[in-house]
Amino acid sequence: MARERRREAERRRRPSPLAEGAPPTSRSSSPAAAPQPVADRCSPGSLGVGSHVEGEGERRRHGGVAGYGQILGRKTRSGSCACFLRPPPPLAHHTPNPAALVSAYAKSRLLLDALHLFDETPRRDIYLYFSLLAAVSRSASLELALPVLRRMLSADALRPDHFVIASVASVSARLRSLRLGRQLHEHFVVSPYSGDDVVKSSLVDMYCKCGFPDDARKVFDSMGAKNSVVWTALVSGYASNGRGEEALQLFRSMPGRNLFAWTALISGLVKTGESVGAVELFVEMRRDDIRIDDAFVLSIVIGGAGQAVACDILSAREVFEGITFRAVISWTTMVVGEAQHGRAEEALALYDRMVLAGAKPNKVTFVGLIYACSHAGLVQKGRQLFESMKNEYGITPGLQHYTCYLDLLSRSGHLLEAEELMTTMPYEPDEATWGALLSACKKYKDAEMCIRIADKLLELRPKDSSTYILLSNVYAVNGKWDSVAKVRKCTIGLEIRKEPVYSWIEAGREFRLFHAGEVPLDVREEIMGFLEEMVLEMRKRGYVPDTSSVMHDLEESEKEHHLFLHSERLAVAFGLIKSPPGSVIRVVKNLRVC
Description:
Pfam families: DYW_deaminase, E_motif, PPR, PPR_2. PPR repeats lie at residues 196-226, 227-261, 327-361. This protein is mainly alpha-helical. Among the domains are: 227-318; 418-493, Alpha Horseshoe (Serine Threonine Protein Phosphatase 5, Tetratricopeptide repeat), CATH 1.25.40; 502-589, no CATH class. The chain has 32 helices and three strands. A hairpin with a 2-residue loop joins strand 1 and strand 2. The model is unreliable at 11-36, 38-70 and 79-93 (pLDDT under 50).
């Protein structure tokens, strides 16, 4: 007994082997330099650690270490170890299979206990490391994997096999830890498994997710057999990192292109703003008659086509109509896509079909529907939908639902009702909500309400230029030029700068950026001549410029000239000049309020 007490006292003085700078099985002679155990890096509350009062009774009934090992095996296989206490110090040294116990704790969501056991185990083999990594990677505290991985890779005595290396690469990818990934790659190159293509596939994925597709390409080129998974990972890596041209070239050379490769490329192009390439690829996919049955994949493809450009919502709809089974996510994605492109009637008709088909709409479905009603001015239908989501489907409206509903009321001129709803709804209005009401004040020339709303908005973002612009515009619409001057003077005093307005276009494989009132010298003569010719023809057909949107105290002719040099008009003119007849002209603008 005395020997056991001395052993326990020695163990308590021993620092945790997991600290930086010490090998996994080393014993430090300096308590002052004792590192922090992994278990101390987290709080029990954040890991969902439970209570295990019954565990002590389990150990007593099963007679110490041997019996404990037997019951451990059964509990581990069943995934039920919630009644186990962390083994006491003597038992921790003799646990027959600490890796199995770590796995059992992980299955019962007892990560803190797994970390404690790891810290107290004096001899750690590769299986214990791997069990802990698997436990951490399945938890919400993925960052705890970093110290474990670093200690494992720096331990000379450990020899992880190809399966462990591939798994560690996946964890590095999820952590977006390039430093750790490179360290793992160096370890892999000198290991006996350096030619393993499974590990190389994991390294390709890791480099892509860390934002280094060129490094991924080097690993990819060194592979012997390349399956569709690694091809898709590299294509997605280039596309999602803004390298659309290279992604497309790689995709063209890919043998046996499957649906997931198409989806990865379209999704990556849309995310990085390369809408033109995404649309062209989507059209090509439709020509190749790629069959889409997976609901999740369908939602990405439809969403990609819908986000890219309005005209291709028709192609997205064609894909939707061609599938046999439509899950809720498929219906919802299509409803939202129709709504985002101003096709309110189509979105509402699709909703009716969805209900008749027995699919239950969710929160996102109603966001799209109310949004559609807002942009189509369908106040009564919007009210009906807002009420039905609560009464018929038991869905509690969120802030996004209230924001869309408030936008519906504001756009339709129900300003007082919208303001009252903002003060009574169960959420604190955010910037987007106040901004929607402020824009409506400009449209309906309600200067008094505009001042109230602007005050609220300036509390949230006191130096945001768009709020001052909207306030100034409301005064201008009402002809209060003195107030306009005061607002502009205020912005100068607060050193608030208006974000420059610009539009851009891709035409004839040429990219052009246009600022309001500025025409590039190399195309100035061509664009100005074209616009003058177009305006003359338009006037013959009854065109009268609407100068009410020019928020400056100018003569009417000066206001017309101001409209003449609008950034979007310049971009459209360039597109008409440079594009062949019948082609689609796509113009993108950086601001909604100018």
